[in-house]
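Why do we care about 3D structure at all? Because function follows from shape, and shape follows, mostly, from sequence. That is the central idea of this module. The next example makes it concrete: a single protein chain, its amino acid sequence, and then its structure expressed as tokens.
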Amino acid sequence: MKINTSIIEKSISKMGKPLRFIVVDDDPLNNFLCTTIIKQALGEIRIQTFVLPEEGLRAIASEFAATTPNGPVILLLDINMPAMNGWQFLEQFDKLEENIKKQLKVYILSSSVDYTDKEKAAHNKYVVDYLEKPLKKDTLLSIVSAA
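And the structure:
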């Protein structure tokens, strides 16, 4: 299915809501690619990247406990990471306060083609969708239009 990106881009620009991204992936190259694609598609926008999932969790816990963003926050989370994988991240995310969890929309962004990973994501109450790497502009614009 071909997505009409010009219609989505126009609707995004009319939303008027600030948008923010958090990318948690142990691969700095993927973080760079995500940042580049997001900025090319959406312009200057707040993007935080974390190569250590534990640091991402700490940042989310401290920052979102004190404030409520006035626009959607999209978390792109990798599954296969060495110290703490994406599933372990989500287990720790589940322990955060409800007011923190409800502020983020979590998308798995992974190169894993394992069916069990896709099933696990589909049944996780925090995961909105499972996306395959690399992040593509059409996919990004669909996520944003649904935010």
